[in-house]
Amino acid sequence: MEALWLIPLLPLLGFVTLLVTEGRLPAVLVAMIGAGSVGLAALAAAPVTLDFLQQGPGTVFAQPLWVWIDVAGFSPDITLYLDGLSLAMVWVITGVGFLIHLYATGYMAGDPGYSRFFAYMNLFVFAMLMLVLADDLLVLYLGWEGVGLCSYLLIGFFHDEPANGYAARKAFVVTRVGDTAMALGLFLLFRELGTLDIQSVLSAATTTWPDGSTTVTVAALLILGGAVGKSAQLPLQTWLPDAMAGPTPVSALIHAATMVTAGVYLVARVHDLFLLSPLAQSALIGVGLATLFMAACAALVQRDIKRILAYSTMSQIGYMFFALGVGAWSAAVFHLMTHAFFKALLFLSAGSVILALHHEQDIFRMGGLWRRLPLPFAGMLVGAAALAALPFTSGFYSKDAILLASAAAPGGLWLWAAASLAALVTALYSARLIFVVFFGPPGSAAGPDDGSNNAMRGPLVVLSLLALGGGWFGLAPPAAVLPDGGVSHGHGGWLAWVTGAVPLLGVGLGYLLFYRWRERTAALVSGAAAQTLRRFWQAGWGFDWLYARLFEQPFTALARLNRRDVVDVPFVLTAALLRIGHQLAADGQNGRLRWYLANMAAGLALLLIIVLGAA
Amino acid sequence: MNAVSIPLEHVMALAATLFLIGLAGVLVRRNLIFLLMSLEIMMNACGLAFIAAGARWGAADGQIMYMLILALAAAEVAVALGLLLQLERRLGSLDIDAASELRG
Amino acid sequence: MELILFYVAGTVALIATVLAVTRSNAAHGLIYLIVSLLAVAVIFFVLGAPFAAALEVVIYAGAIMVLFVFVVMMLNLGQRRAAAERAWLAPRNWIGPSLLALVLLLELTYIIFTSSAVSAGQVVGPKEVGLALFGPYLLAVELAALLLLAALVGAYHLGRRYMPSRRRGEETP
What is the value of ipTM here, to two decimals? Predict the structure, then answer.
């Protein structure tokens, strides 16, 4: 337990070291510091975990570090708080994070910004760890903002290309909208409850507010707003596909395994607030389901391999939100873990493919790669299988847990049907991904030249094992924290059988549509209506277009209207008036005697009028 | 001759009018000579006012003041005409607007 | 009878003054001014100040105005500059100052006519004036003499000849 503070400290030290040495260190050293700090943090987590498990699943470790602010009535302190939920998150962050860092040492080799990359990545890991280890909502917000910053820095990592900067800014601004909602939620909580300490907030909330009261609903919805922004759910999801402009390890770490799951973590952490508000829970279900569907359909028609994975992430997080809404808290966190495994695996494998094909990302230019790139193929196969929730993969256990829990909820059968339909589409696009990229005739891309080294191969192997076997992890630690007491394996009945069969159906359908009867599929979708639908889905259901019309254009029109800046008027006017006054005064000093005399006479006349008027 | 009682307001009014005609002349005329002439008119009008005031009380004080004004006028005219000659030589004209180097 | 004399002299003074100010020939203006001064001298007489009247004629009209005439003759102002002077007297030049003077005139007359008094109607002769000068106003006489001395020196200096090299428009050393 004493080593708890080492866990966030080590990545922070890595960041500071790399920041201070500014690229002057040799690459090997940079790699060691960059990946090593996260690895050491994972190592430091080991004794803490053993300690934790010894004391039983309901344990809580709290390590107060110092008091952050101490102002009248408000004194948040930096305390590291470890319970089952944050323990699971710590392992995801440090474990999967270390594997991704290791992969990145090979992937980013030769890049001039090598040191900068690892500095940012370490900062990100630090911020994310602070987020999950926070005992106080304000410290959580610190981590929240920190990951947002790192996301911006890393998306725009290749800053020579203006489009990358735009994508980074877009990500930052859209998540900012969510962050503002969250901040408002924090303000509300503080005003009503007088504290931001998480445990105090949760207990005070249950005692202060009745079920379904407006205040708690508003607070929960505001916090949901923050989660929606960070996790790229409807309506703040537009930034995630564009965030693929960053390097692939970044997409793997931030936009698949960790940062985007921060929203899920937040909701799970303050679950009591949501339990008090049925409206917020319905909102969770609505947001989750809508995003789930929308993203799955969009993933089905994308051409860029990373964009497929991005929409897939969006969709899977929709699953998690959906699970949180129906009350399957543990299932959501379980799915978070397994998703981290297989999504990171998918991204890293895709990275290997992209690198081997000399940065080709269009899947229709790929094909027949299964023989030439065996390890990436295996990785993607395992990952896609887990994504589609084929039986006995980790994804199977977590997703089925969610689906079965949804069936048990009120109005459940409809929810289950919708979620299952989305699962079908998920399996469909996963199959599409595999079949188009790895089978069929070779595409027009150059290569493949497998330039990956062991640093890149190792993580793929480990992640494949985790993606396959991760379903058998005991989930006791988070279960002790969450209100639904753990994932129940094995529901009986026809429902479980159908749920298990849906992915198989999807994969089979995918095989037929995208491999066997490729040409017929192409002919089918070449009609005008189908093409319009395809374009609509490919553009992410037109949200970018909508937001441009709704927000960007009115704003830029207003800015253009205010080009002369109406606020400047008092200042400009003052200057102009002074200038005019000066000119008048200067003209009055024209050196002419008669003019001066006339002024004197006029002054005298005025004076006499005043005197006579007063008298 | 015998002096009679003349209503003082009328004399004062006359003095005021003469004074203001002089003032108008100073303001209107550009030629330096006329300017100085108008100045003399103004001073004369002041003298008239003083004499009238003295006549009101039947005292010599008014006339004495008038004499001082006269001395002043003489001194001023002497110096002013000297200046006028110098100015004419330097500026080439008697336009008072030409002597505006103290502008700005 | 003296009252009528006063009004007549006053009218003459007014008219002559107006004419003096508005002439374009400098010499004509001076002549009119002399007439005005003489008229004012008559008014002095009527008011019972013969000494002042004499002084007005002798010094004011006789010396100061003659000085003016000398300068006018020296600078040859008169016929040559008549046209230019008329141009300078265009209406837009005298409307403003005249209005200003009118306003002041109205104010002054208002002030003057709020009180009423009459002159004492007695003659204050030279003897009384002399007694006053050598009595209470002795210092004033000395000061006036000092002033005239200063004016004398000043006028002498200002009237000096120029060095041959100096031309129009150059700075004085």
Answer: 0.92
